[in-house]
């Protein structure tokens, strides 16, 4: 475990619930505890020399990056003087073309270029994909292949995240000396939608790289009723040696794995249960029950979650959390990968509510750290120009297939001049 010593980590505690602290790793006992030194307690804004945290009391943890200011220290007040809403630009009577002013707006920014990237609505994304397929001959099968490769690349990146390594060593490897991230299991939870189609393609890419992948597809019992593109990906996945399980078969598979000597070491869960166009309420009653159980299981599991486009249970347009069975429920991710372009609901979900108006909160725990990525769908600038969105020239991926994004906001507590 010496490879984790010296990492600067952010830890969210289960008790007291939601309490956040950061410090430098000085000791890790697999399955037992994590010890930090030079610890900053966010709730009380004080420093303590060291702290030992039981593994069972860790709700979430992430590495504190060194490519920006330390978010655990008091942040200097911004020098901007205009009043901002959750994601508003200055309220002028015309559209600003000033690049510097645009870069000062709250929103999502690409890493490392620090360029602001515009979000689009679900309908705009569907329109762009229709233009690509119908006018340019760029089929959904090609888009699924590109998206699947991007999702798979983010999954591989996630497996190298120091936070995942620490968590896996403490929770999984502590129970099985033979477990390792490279030999662990990646679970894909998919629905009958485009996100599910693309997640299946990602599963095939990961299997081809010798990762152990388990796919659970809601509705597989009625395979003939599934989307044509999804059925094509299912056939491809099977042709490459994979199995697609129903919810019942999946839980039975988990029970058998848990009962084995080494257990079932799950390192990552890919969430593609609900796509961009169908809400939980629009599902069949039986599928609603399956999705609900799988969402609850994903949140109970110690593995990190990678969500496709927007976490299931979060509205892709408003960013609001769905009310399911009388309570708020969404799959809580560690990673989110936007396909083609970030959706408006993702920006809303990661935008903290104004200090003076908690009614705008989307009920998401903003203390959770989401690592955001964007995957190239293969849409060229000619398609973006035809779409009529603000992203007229497309997104510059700097020669890569996947880029990381970060949310950057304004300090709204600043007093007006």
From TrEMBL:
Highest taxon of source: Eukaryota
One GO BP annotation of this record: deadenylation-independent decapping of nuclear-transcribed mRNA
Region (Disordered): 82-104
MF terms (GO), sorted A to Z: mRNA binding
Gene3D superfamilies referenced in this protein's UniProt entry, alphabetically: YjeF N-terminal domain
UniProt domain YjeF N-terminal: residue ranges: 125-385
InterPro entries: YjeF_N_dom, YjeF_N_dom_sf
One GO cellular component term: P-body
Name of the protein: YjeF N-terminal domain-like protein
Organism, as annotated: Trichoderma longibrachiatum ATCC 18648
């Amino acid at each position: 475990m010496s490879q984790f010593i010296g990492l600067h980590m952010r830890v969210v505690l289960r008790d007291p619930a939601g309490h956040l602290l950061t410090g430098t790793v000085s000791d890790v006992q697999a399955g037992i505890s994590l010890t930090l030194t030079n610890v900053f307690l966010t709730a009380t804004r004080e420093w303590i020399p060291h702290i030992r945290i039981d593994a069972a009391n860790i709700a979430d943890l992430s590495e504190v990056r060194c490519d920006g200011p330390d978010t655990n220290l008091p942040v200097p007040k911004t020098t901007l003087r205009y009043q901002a809403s959750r994601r508003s630009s200055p309220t002028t009577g015309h559209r600003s073309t000033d690049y510097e002013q645009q870069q000062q707006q709250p929103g999502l920014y690409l890493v490392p270029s620090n360029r602001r990237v515009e979000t689009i609505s679900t309908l705009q994304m569907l329109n762009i994909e229709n233009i690509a397929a119908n006018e340019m001959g760029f089929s959904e099968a090609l888009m699924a292949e590109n998206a699947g490769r991007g999702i798979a690349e983010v999954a591989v990146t996630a497996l190298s995240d120091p936070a995942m390594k620490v968590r896996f060593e403490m929770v999984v490897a502590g129970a099985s000396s033979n477990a390792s991230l490279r030999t662990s299991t990646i679970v894909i939870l998919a629905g009958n939608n485009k996100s599910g189609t693309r997640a299946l393609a990602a599963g095939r890419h990961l299997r081809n790289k010798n990762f152990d992948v388990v796919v659970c597809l809601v509705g597989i019992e009625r395979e003939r009723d599934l989307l044509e593109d999804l059925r094509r990906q299912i056939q491809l996945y099977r042709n490459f040696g994979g199995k697609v399980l129903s919810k019942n078969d999946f839980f039975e598979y988990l029970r058998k794995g848990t009962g084995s000597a080494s257990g079932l070491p799950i390192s990552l869960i890919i969430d593609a249960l609900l796509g961009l166009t169908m809400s939980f309420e629009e599902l069949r009653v039986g599928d609603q029950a399956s999705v609900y159980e799988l969402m609850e299981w994903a949140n109970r599991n110690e593995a990190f979650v990678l969500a496709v486009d927007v976490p299931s249970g979060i509205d892709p347009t408003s960013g609001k959390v769905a009310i399911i069975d009388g309570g708020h429920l969404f799959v809580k991710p560690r990673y989110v990968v936007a396909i083609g372009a970030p959706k408006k609901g993702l920006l809303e979900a990661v935008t903290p509510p104004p200090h003076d108006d908690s009614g705008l909160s989307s009920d998401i725990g903003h203390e959770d750290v989401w690592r955001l990525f964007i995957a190239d769908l293969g849409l060229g600038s000619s398609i973006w120009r035809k779409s009529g969105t603000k992203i007229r020239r497309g997104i510059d991926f700097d020669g890569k297939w996947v880029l990381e994004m970060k949310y950057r906001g304004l300090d709204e507590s600043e007093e007006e001049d």
